[in-house]
Specification:
98 residues
């Protein structure tokens, strides 16, 4: 899988940018869900979300190893969007949010 990701980054840069953005977005959504599950003492859900965080963290580490600053910035932008959506729409049920 590592070889596939490295090939994706070097051979298909537009596809890699899209994947980096989506993975950043999903990572922060999963992070928010993990925090909520932990706060609510849902151990099984929190453990499952932590596994996903580790998997996405490995992909982020590969981007750092490749020193692809553009993909790292795109990943971070996706992460920003993921957090924004998780907080804004996750709090709608409680009557909170922007």
């Amino acid at each position: 899988m590592v070889d596939y990701i490295l090939t994706l980054i070097t051979v298909y840069p537009v596809c890699a940018a899209i994947v980096a953005f989506v993975l950043g977005w999903i990572t922060d959504l999963v992070w928010a869900k993990w925090a909520i599950s932990t706060k609510l003492n849902k151990a099984f859900a929190a453990a499952n979300f932590s596994i996903l965080m580790y998997l996405f963290g490995i992909i982020y580490t590969l981007l750092i190893i490749e020193k692809n600053i553009i993909l790292i910035a795109i990943y971070i932008a996706g992460g920003w969007l993921g957090t924004y959506i998780a907080v804004k729409y996750g709090n709608k049920k409680e009557g909170k949010g922007d």
